[in-house]
Amino acid sequence: xxxxxxxxxxxxxxxxxxxxxxxxxxxxxxxxxxxxxxxxxxxxxxxxxxxxxxxxxxxxxxxxxxxxxxxxxxxxxxxxxxxxxxxxxxxxxxxxxxxxxxxxxxxxxxxxxxxxxxxxxxxxxxxxxxxxxxxxxxxxxxxxxxxxxxxxxxxxxxxxxxxxxxxxxxxxxxxxxxx
Amino acid sequence: xxxxxxxxxxxxxxxxxxxxxxxxxxxxxxxxxxxxxxxxxxxxxxxxxxxxxxxxxxxxxxxxxxxxxxxxxxxxxxxxxxxxxxxxxxxxxxxxxxxxxxxxxxxxxxxxxxxxxxxxxxxxxxxxxxxxxxxxxxxxxxxxxxxxxxxxxxxxxxxxxxxxxxxxxxxxxxxxxxx
Lengths: 179, 179
Hints:
2 copies of one chain form a homodimer.
Chain A: H1 7-13, E1 15-18, E2 26-29, H2 31-34, H3 37-50, E3 58-62, H4 65-77, E4 80-86, E5 94-100, E6 105-111, E7 120-128, H5 132-141, E8 148-157, E9 170-177
Parallel strand pairs in A: 3-4, 3-7, 7-8, 8-9
Antiparallel strand pairs in A: 1-2, 4-6, 5-6
Helix pairs in contact in A: 3-4
C-alpha cells in the first residue's frame, strides 16, 4: 500500500539535527524531504495552489534555501524570480538592510531594478523562526512601491512567535512546529 | 508585435557587469532574465525538455544560483532536489571536497544520504567557467555509486574552456559566450 502524501507525513520526514548550527538550536533539515520527487512536487503544487488566484507577478526568495522551492513555485504560477542575497553577492546597484539573526547578524540585498510598482509579490523562505530575516526582507521590499506583498514559509517554528512581528501581512506556512 | 523568445534574445538580456566580483572579471548577471516570467519559464521548459526522456531521478544543484532553475527543473521533470552547499552549511553527515575557484578557493559538501545507487543525476549550475566547481561537484558525486551523471549549465564561457576538463560527460549549455 502506498502511503498518501500529506503535510503531516512530510513533517515526519523532516530531520531534526540537534545543536546545529550551534549548541541549543534544533535544526529542521528539509533535505530529507526535497530529495524525494513526490514530496518535492507535492510541496510545490500545494504552495502554488494557495496563490493561484493572487496574480503574483514576482516571487522574491531569500538566499539560499528559499531559492529551491521558490524557483519551482515561480515557474508553476508563471511569476518572475527575484533573489534576496547576502551582502556583496549581487553585482549591480542594490538596496541593503542589516539585521539581527537568531544567532549572529547579517546583511541582505536586492537589486534596485528588481521590482516595479505593478508588482504583486510572494515573499518566500523555507523557515519562519523569530521573523528577523522576514522583517529585513520586508524592509527591503518597502524601498519599492508595490501593489501587494504575500508571505509564504515552508516551515514555521510557532514557539518563536515570528508571526507576531509580521501581523500586518497575509502569511501561509505549510508545516508548524509547536516545540 | 510581441518578440519571440529565443535563447539569443535571452542572451541579449543578460547583464554584463564589469569588474565584479573583482577587477578584470566580466560578471554575467542573469537576474535581469530570471525576473521576467516568460523568460524564466522558457529556460525551465527548455532544459526540462532536453532531459525529459533521461529518467533523471535527482537534480543535484550547486549553491546558490544553481538552486533557482534547479528547483524549477526538478519539479518539472519529476525529480528530487539535492543541494551541494558551501562547507559547514549542511547539518547532517557530509562528503566534502576542496577546490580552487577562478578567484580564490572553496569547499563544498553533500549529505552522505543524499543519493543511492539507483540514481540518474542531472548536475546543474548556472555557469560553466573554468570547470573548477563542476569538477569538484563530480568529485563529490564520485563518492556515490550512481547509474549515470548528466551535466547542465545555463551559461558557458567558451573562452575559459571548462568543457575540456569535463570531456567524459554529456553536457548541455543553453547560452554560450565566445568572449
